[in-house]
Design brief:
This protein has helices at 20-36, 61-77, 172-175, 180-186, 204-218, 269-278, 317-341, 355-371, 390-402, 413-423, 432-453, 463-468, 489-502, 508-519, 538-541, 545-558, 562-572, 579-595, 597-601, 629-637, and strands spanning 5-12, 41-43, 84-93, 96-105, 108-114, 138-141, 147-150, 154-158, 165-170, 191-196, 222-227, 244-247, 250-254, 261-268, 290-294, 346-350, 378-382, 406-409, 455-459, 481-482. By secondary structure, it is of the alpha/beta class. The strands form three sheets. The chain has an eight-stranded mixed beta sheet. The protein has a seven-stranded mixed beta sheet with strand order 13-12-11-10-9-8-15. Strand 3 (84-93) and strand 4 form a beta hairpin. The longest helix is centred in the middle third of the chain and has 25 residues, at 317-341. The protein is elongated, with a radius of gyration of 31 Å.
Length: 638
């Protein structure tokens, strides 16, 4: 439960239809097994105490009474465990019979929630036995020993974890046009449990999965769906025990077909709360919901979910290709519109032979092609300086020539020597002035050419550099339109790789140059090389970009604390980085992120392509003089 994580379990018992004693015994076994695995929310299927497929036996008093006794047994059993349990049973109240979910914890029955929508179509005929629940919540006496609340509008709230609130719906409720879980979520429930008995027919599992995923995404919640298993009656239907645990549209865990037993998954309640806080349209609270308190110990959840080391990059190759296509389209459209709006007939771009300028050039070429503009109106300028190596220079020339642009080469060395003389800086000085002066000289050249040619200077800097402030203010930080501004470095690499592969058949030499660029160390090349090789390697100075992109994603996307980011980074990069190294670079990330905001405040326009952006006009508005002490102190305590 620490850091917002809570382990959930779908528990599908081996059901014996109408044999409550056998079913309760099986459910007790699963309660213990789930609790031994540290599950805190355990959900059984619909009518699990009796079996869903009892038919008209639900009208038998003996079965109804025994079902209640079975619930009492399970509630007493729960006193042994630290968790909350949900089980299904028929419940007779006054003149009606209800299909209910019972919530119980620490030896107490917390509530009975009746099913809202009772199906009476196709193979379902529940209307024959059950009555729909209404909106009222009342206190009911179950026996001399037991009483609880009964009604639909209940939310179970954990006193020891304020953010954990659980809503309940039952099977058909999810299929309805207005699922009860929507109201529950708007009234604070961040995890929905569904006790279900959905039979298996061809194609239904896919539809069922889409419902769970879409509803969890629509209401920004965790969703724990436990379905009746293969040992229900097979007189006319077969049940597969399809269990799912989803989180905000993402499948966390899913059982195999025709399954019984336990399915575990970790839900991150803190992540859900972060998402909801962002959404000012997440409103609609009513006053008729009742919160039922329960308690659990705050303990460390041993996580079973995984965290990809590159959260900006899809792991599936086909999804990655689709992502690359979409990003290129967004970048291309953004630049095309800006060129037309500015009445600019030309683009000016500095080509270094590195990843970022390569991607910016590829986007510019696509934009010109889509507009029907001549590629010769793309003025590509390579500007060798003190740190330029033959490798990057040759790759830059190859790119420009093979993409059929206007190729220009302007050395900045003579201008820099004159400039150093003018400001009284020794040429042997290797200070930040030595480096930044070169970046500003290059930007000045590009800006002046753009003025001469009625063109736009295309920015090349990426999202990761903006986060770290790894750009020279009024140097490469500045442009007239930054096409890479919301593309992180880890994704830049895959976009260039995508183009290298796709162009291989048409232009082998160009493809080879792209692959060589991918293999070249990331460097601003502002310090002289050593023996012709790049001496100044960015990742040796500021740290691995894959770590910084990981920090950036979870800090920006979900507002996670440095402590929580460290916890999941240790899982994501297990075997690659030790804790002290991650801690070192996380410190660098947060320190630089705060101190370099002034550069982002003056950021040129550029298209947003993903869920994280640092545009001062859109997603990120932060004072440049904000203090990082709170975040750095937390890292120091790790």
């Amino acid at each position: 439960m620490k850091d917002g994580f809570i382990k959930c379990a779908c528990a599908v018992p081996h059901v014996c239809v109408a044999d409550v004693e056998s079913n309760v015994s099986e459910m007790k076994r699963l309660m213990q097994e789930a609790s031994d695995s540290d599950a805190k929310i355990i959900v059984f299927p619909e009518l699990s105490i009796t079996g869903y497929s009892c038919g008209d036996l639900f009208g038998q008093t003996s079965l109804l009474n025994r079902a209640l006794e079975g619930l009492f047994e399970l509630a007493r059993e729960s006193e042994k465990y630290d968790g909350i349990f949900f089980a299904g049973l028929p419940f007779a109240y006054q003149n009606h019979l209800y299909n209910c979910a019972a919530a119980f914890s620490k030896g107490e029955i917390l509530g009975l929630i009746p099913k809202t929508y009772i199906p009476d179509y196709h193979e379902f005929y529940e209307v024959r036995q059950f009555f729909p629940g209404d909106d009222s919540v009342i206190d009911v006496t179950l026996s001399d020993e037991w009483n609880c609340l009964f009604g639909k509008k209940m939310i179970f709230s954990c006193e020891s974890m304020d953010s954990l609130k659980i809503g309940v719906e039952i099977c058909e409720d999810l299929w309805a046009p207005q699922p009860p879980s929507t109201d529950a979520a708007l009234n604070g429930a961040d995890i929905i449990v569904n006790l279900s008995a959905s039979n298996e027919i061809i194609g239904k599992s896919e539809y069922r999965r889409s419902l769970v995923l879409s509803q969890s995404g629509r209401i920004v919640s965790g969703y724990v769906y436990s379905c009746a298993g293969p040992f229900e009656s097979t007189t006319d239907t077969v049940f597969a025990g399809h269990s799912m645990i989803a989180e905000n549209g993402r499948m966390i865990a899913e059982s195999e077909a025709f399954h019984e037993g336990l399915t575990f998954g970790d839900i991150d309640v803190e992540r859900l709360m972060s998402e909801r806080r962002r959404m000012n349209t997440f409103t609609g609270k009513s006053d008729d919901y009742i919160e039922i308190p329960f308690t659990m110990e705050i303990s460390e959840t041993e996580l079973s979910r995984t965290f990809p080391p590159h959260p900006f990059v899809p792991a599936d190759e086909s999804e990655l290709s689709s992502r690359c296509r979409d990003i290129f389209r967004i970048q291309t459209l953004g630049l095309s519109k800006r060129l037309l709006a500015a009445h600019a007939c030309k683009a000016v771009i500095g080509i270094s032979g590195g990843l970022d300028s390569t991607l910016a050039l590829l986007v510019t070429v696509k934009a010109f092609d889509s507009l029907g503009f001549d590629r010769k109106n793309i003025i590509t300028v390579t500007m060798p300086g003190f740190g330029t190596t033959g490798r990057t220079h040759d790759n830059a020339i190859t790119l420009m020539k093979h993409l059929q642009t206007d190729v220009r080469e302007i050395s900045i060395v003579p201008a820099m020597k004159q400039h150093f003389s003018d400001i009284g800086l020794s040429e042997d000085d290797r200070s930040v002035t030595y480096e930044n002066a070169q970046a500003r000289e290059r930007t000045q050249i590009l800006m002046d050419i753009a003025n001469m040619e009625n063109g736009l200077v295309i920015g090349t800097g990426d999202l990761s550099e903006l986060a770290l402030g790894w750009a020279t203010y009024n140097g490469d930080q500045m442009s007239m339109y930054g096409v890479n501004a919301s593309v992180p470095k880890t994704l830049v690499r895959y976009l260039v790789r995508y183009e290298a592969v796709s162009r291989n058949a048409d232009d082998t030499r160009l493809s080879e140059a792209l692959f060589d660029i991918l293999d070249t160390p990331v460097s601003p090349e502002l310090l002289p090389p050593k023996d012709g090789e790049i001496e100044q390697k960015t990742e040796d100075i500021v740290g691995p970009y894959e770590l910084h992109d990981f920090f950036l994603y979870y800090m920006m996307r979900f507002g996670f604390s440095p402590k929580k980011i460290m916890r999941i980074a240790l899982l994501a990069f297990a075997g690659r980085y030790e804790k002290e190294e991650i801690k070192k670079w996380e410190t660098v990330f947060f320190r630089r992120f705060f101190t370099q905001q002034f550069k982002r405040s003056a950021l040129p326009d550029g298209p947003k392509v993903g869920s994280v952006s640092l545009s001062p006009r859109g997603d990120w508005r932060m004072p440049s003089d904000a203090v990082s002490k709170l975040w750095l102190d937390e890292i120091e305590e790790i």
